[in-house]
């Protein structure tokens, strides 16, 4: 165990600033020297700067993290800014993913803010020769009410830096929070609306050239040979180099590089997956649901209980491959010069970029500097470092020249990592009274392989397999006998973390099937869920322990009840409309429920959703709500993301990804956006804040599908939704 | 390669580029004006939208040879202090998430308001119907657009 003291330390700063180094997520061995990986600085002009290794990709960390510091520091929030930290030699925990930024940084940032505040007060007390206890701090000023004296944080910063870091600091009682829990707007909004915000593609380094790569159109193929004669004739093309993934064309501008690529003549070798077809794969997944697979959760007698049931309901749900498709295509800029590599990347994982650069260039990690740029959407795609590797490989070949490697839109759509296609066999067992007494959820998909293909051993290990079945094993419902299983099926389509990782397909199947069971047993879908969460049954415990955590069924009931109340559940929808509901607890931490109201769209345009969502009511329990405005923004975002999944899919024919643009992998547009999206935040007793960016996705699509199924009388068991699915 | 004079944000710029090079890359790679974003290159996503003589165009679809003598406004030219009513409305509604598509959205709205100073909600939706925001900021864009009209965005 490290002590508090080793988490915080005064570090050298120029010009009379108070600078505290912070070590976050230190699982260090005792005696390891203190290496900060976050900083808090109070400058003589009173401005406060925090540097943390959390990537902004639209989720609002550049606003919410400063709020946490400012609260405990009692800073003037208008003077707080955040800066992106870059990896140093011993700089772990910079990655951004899994909706974990707020939760993981909550305590360290609060402690840093409180420690700095104590030091500023101590400095003021020393100057006034009074007791620190007689002083107060507010909005960036220390006050001595007894003598009505005041000094700003800026005036105190230099003295405060000479104060010892307190061994222990008292954190505020959440009831005393002044800033946390209030709605704050984005701190970086002005940069965005004036075009000054610097995304990865906006990096401009003197002497920089632009590169695009021709990659094999078929999965797993490689170039046998290529002829660059014509490419080199394109004005502006400077180099053509072969890299591990394909042929890179390097030019004076992006457009010349793209035209040069078009002019390449490449013989692609045969693909071992030339026969791979996405529809056939989905059929194979469905067929594989016939076998139960590896058990990842078993309650009561598990699936054996199915033998004694009076009646079974059984359905299969299918979920397609899906792309991340951020509007800024992936890209990376790299320069290798004098044995040092500088990288500018819109990355969620700068440490991995640093390691990749060191390995590819054969230099120590200390000689690699990674500048993290803003992300034009992340969604898990930029946890991969494939695009960084390409840029570094090209820069390594053309030493001394900065290279910006750009993926075109269709590169981004075809050559990324995808949400795995999956099949889910759902079986419900009913007793003679029609009560749900047995449950089976068998998920089949191809395993997570963004960071390498799992070994055969991995595929048999329930602890590994469980991660691929998020949303299956962590179901909050208490059913006397339940068994959740997983079957891995290999596919050549590269799979990677997507927004909400692997949960959305699992939650879609579970929440839609539960609606089927409710309908077939003539129970209200809200009432059935509440009953399965122990609403009227004291023998069902609120706490349910599962691998990696535990969930609280009372909190799950809480969000369902709140969403239902706000939406007027149980009322009669207008003619031609229908309502649906679904819920989930994400990663055992954030509880969320949606109630939606839908109708069929009259004469949809080609590619437009064949239905209209009039209203979405969301209830969410994420513990402490740091920035309610940010939470509402993420709910809106999750609703649109999930609706997009009812619209588009990635298909594969003869080993080739077919979609390349938003015209063939359509996402939701403004004219398909729900009429209203309301967010209701539960006042939670949980003293910690939990993630938002991903939990908001999962239960929306099933709520919509449930509403549509009630409207048309036909069940939606495969996404995306076609107009033909909506005829009764 | 040819040399042309184009007016960008009220400044005359002499640019040399291939006649077929889209204005998007002229702006970004030749002039270093990166506020205009690349999203698809085929006129589908709208993130490269700029104003051409006051009307919204997709700069990835405007070849350099067609730009000569015309006057363009990019996001950098709307105002650098976010004082334009459209920018103010975007800030007031806290529209941006990742923000990458917003320059295109804002300029499309600017063009609409010049044409229709008080648009209806359906006119706003029609104007923005071909702009992709993968973060899903659309509910706030709707509100910001109506607010921009109130703030006198047509100016």
Describe, in short, the structure shown.
The complex is a heterodimer of chains A (728) and B (155). In chain A, 26% of the residues lie in helices and 24% in strands.
Characterise the protein shown here:
By secondary structure, chain A is α+β, with helices and mostly antiparallel strands. Helices cover 26% and strands 24% of the residues of chain A. Chain A contains 17 helices and 30 strands. In chain A, the strands form 8 sheets. Chain A has a 7-stranded mixed beta sheet with strand order 11-12-9-19-16-17-18, sandwiched between helices. A 5-stranded mixed beta sheet of chain A has the order 1-2-3-4-5. The termini of chain A are far apart. In chain A, 56% of the residues are buried. Chain B is an alpha+beta fold. In chain B, helix 4 (102-115) runs parallel beside helix 6. Chains A and B meet through helix 4, helix 6 and helix 16 of A and helix 1, helix 2, helix 3, helix 4 and helix 5 of B.
State the share of residues found in helices of chain B, binned by percent. 25-40%
Shape of chain A: globular
Overall mean pLDDT score of chain B?
97
N/C terminus separation of chain B: 37 Å
* Rg on CA atoms of chain B, Å: 15 Å
List keywords for this structure.
heterodimer; A: 728 residues; alpha+beta; seven-stranded mixed beta sheet; five-stranded mixed beta sheet; 30 strands; 26% helix; globular; disordered N terminus; B: 155 residues; 35% helix
Task: List the topology elements.
The complex is a heterodimer of chains A (728) and B (155).
Chain A: E1 8-10, E2 18-22, E3 38-42, E4 48-52, H1 61-73, E5 80-84, H2 101-128, E6 136-138, E7 141-144, E8 149-152, H3 153-160, H4 189-193, E9 209-214, E10 223-227, H5 229-233, E11 237-243, E12 246-251, H6 254-262, E13 265-268, H7 278-288, E14 294-299, E15 311-319, E16 331-337, E17 340-345, H8 350-361, E18 368-372, H9 386-397, E19 403-406, H10 409-414, E20 422-430, E21 436-445, H11 456-460, H12 462-465, E22 481-488, H13 503-520, H14 525-532, E23 543-546, E24 549-552, H15 553-567, E25 577-586, E26 590-600, E27 611-621, H16 628-644, E28 652-653, E29 656-657, E30 676-681, H17 700-712
Parallel strand pairs in A: 4-5, 9-19, 17-18, 21-22, 27-30
Antiparallel strand pairs in A: 1-2, 2-3, 3-4, 6-7, 7-8, 9-12, 10-13, 11-12, 14-22, 15-20, 16-17, 16-19, 20-21, 23-24, 25-26, 26-27, 28-29
Helix pairs in contact in A: 1-2, 2-3, 8-9, 13-17
Chain B: E1 2-8, E2 11-17, H1 23-30, E3 49-52, E4 55-58, E5 71-73, H2 75-78, H3 85-92, H4 102-115, H5 121-128, H6 138-150
Parallel strand pairs in B: 1-5
Antiparallel strand pairs in B: 1-2, 3-4, 3-5
Helix pairs in contact in B: 3-6, 4-5, 4-6
